[in-house]
Write a structure and sequence with these properties.
SH3 type barrels
Length: 79
């Protein structure tokens, strides 16, 4: 019996897989959207989270920790 080499469909093993790029942490000081609120990124925290600062209805600034994926870029319009 003569063995034929196996065809690989153009792939070269594990290195041919395409990987998704990991989301990058937003830059410190960036203005972003968190739900309905416009927030400022204050610092990077652990576990793909950032500390944001926003202003509530009373005008008080407060900070909270949220995941990177929950933030989105501001649109064309600021308010």
């Amino acid at each position: 019996m003569e063995q034929k080499p196996r065809e690989r469909n153009g792939r070269t093993g594990r290195t041919a897989r395409t990987r998704r790029k990991a989301p990058a942490c937003p830059p410190i000081g960036a203005l972003m959207r968190y739900g309905e609120r416009t927030v400022r990124v204050v610092a990077e925290a652990s576990g793909r989270r950032v500390i944001i600062e926003s202003v509530n209805e009373d005008g008080r600034a407060f900070r909270s920790t949220v995941k990177w994926l929950s933030l989105s870029a501001l649109g064309d319009q600021f308010f």
